[in-house]
């Protein structure tokens, strides 16, 4: 059976004999008979390649070329050669060969779209062999019969010098081996080739160089000061200088009146050391003679009490000192009582200075302290604890007018700014709470008076809702920028409808909204030397600073809600304690800390059956619906309270705690106080 058809007519005819073909190289590069392959560096290879390109350009008609053009031409040629060799190596490695064969070069020609016929023209190049095939440099070989001397290693391998140099070694000990056996020889350090390590080492060297330069500059500046250059005086030096001038003036005044005990004392300058020691003696003498207030003592103390401040700070201090005390800060009576207790633990009629008494020592004027600002924090340790509904009630009481058609609404008649950091502030629920509060307080003074119409209620509700401004920052920088721009926004009469009203309350819905984000940024940031540079601490410090600026400028109450991370601890007499997780800068800024929670409803008994549970379902549901919420003072940091706060809380009913109920209509506060 035949595998394929034969091209011959018969099977007995023998095929024609194949002719032998001999292959050989037509051009050979002239090489010396005896040579060793020289070691060429990169510069030599580049120069040879540039020379070859120059010969090729001259052969095709170019007389010259710019160095930049030649360098670009050489770089393109090198890139093309590298790509071609890479294709050859890829074909070689894919066939698991260690050396390239002609098939690898054919595959590389195919990938570069080159045919064998296109290479025939390069077999007879237009450049003469003398120019295209230069002789390679070869090392000089010694002539025949010439003796070659190599360096001797005898001094290194000989151990006899060691025996003579070590006289403490006994002579019967064997000789020491060569030094090369127990001493290390110099070894060349390998050059680092890892780019990452090279960059790290360069960065470290740059940092060290910068530190050395800073030390050098600091040494030069200190040396300049030692050489007589004037240095900038500090605040303490200026105060000391002013005090010396004042004492010298008082001394000159006393000298004119004949009260100077030593006529040799120079008050016009000269020896300033005597001036600094003289006033104490003068004051003691005049105090013994007059037994009363001396001009020198009074002037000295008045100068020490002088304080520099800006005009806005002065006006703010005057407003805090002379403004009447507000008995209602939030429009919620039990919360207002707690806030006033923490703000003013002592009576306001306490004098801010000591009355003068001639029998006592000279009184020292004490300026009145700036009162604390109302900052309230409402914390809950469990979800659905009622703190957000308490915020709705505070916002509604802040925007309600004080009266309407001779009816007292007991509102604050202000504006409210809400920073909704967690995007959960419900405007519909706020409208329901405001409507419920408005309906409960719109009670006519007499039964014969007409009640407000639904249109009047709707108009009053609409006007009140226009006084609430809600902002939703999405990041810590956005929150800081929003708080910083609040004064500019609220003082613009064309931006909103609240320009006639003051800012009453600033509400932050969740202090912990960006807590973990800032904590993650702080953990990912490199370890810093100073704790103040920590992004976590820096963010909260900036937030407190911005809130404090807004409060001092607009005189508002700050109410912030927070989600507690620690368990609720019950103490004696119904007191509660929750460990704060906010940084200390916020804890110092906060005035009143409250904890809210839900009252516990008794569960089903352990032995109740399913039928009994179904039978008591309606009663149980009614008990859950009537269950209220409680709000108490957080006693965690009670040791840092002002004197009189803890005693004041004990005088309040239930220690200042109050209850509130939440229903579908609104929020109802139980005030027993």
UniProtKB/TrEMBL annotation:
Got a GO cellular component term for this one? microtubule organizing center
Question: Which InterPro entries would you find in this protein's record?
Answer: BTP, Histone-fold, P-loop_NTPase, TFIID_su8_C, XRCC2
Polar residues bias spans: 266-277, 351-362
* Region Disordered: start-end pairs: 1-23, 186-239, 256-277, 349-374
Gene3D superfamilies, per the entry:
Histone, subunit A (1.10.20.10), P-loop containing nucleotide triphosphate hydrolases (3.40.50.300)
Record domain Transcription factor TFIID subunit 8 C-terminal: where: 168-216
**Keyword Acetylation (UniProt):** no
Domain named Bromodomain associated is located at: 43-111
GO MF, one example:
four-way junction DNA binding
Q: Which UniProt keywords apply?
A: Nucleus, Transcription, Transcription regulation
Q: Where in the cell is it found?
A: Nucleus
Gene Ontology BP, a term: double-strand break repair via homologous recombination
Q: Does the keyword Protein biosynthesis apply?
A: no
Query: A single Pfam family, by name?
Result: Bromo_TP
- Bias class Basic and acidic residues marks the residues at 189-214, 224-238
Where does the UniProt entry say this protein principally localizes? Answer: nucleus
Q: Which PANTHER family match?
A: DNA REPAIR PROTEIN XRCC2
Q: What is the name attached to this protein's record?
A: Transcription factor TFIID, subunit 8, C-terminal
Q: What is the protein's species of origin? A: Lasallia pustulata
The taxonomy runs: Eukaryota, Fungi, Dikarya, Ascomycota, Pezizomycotina
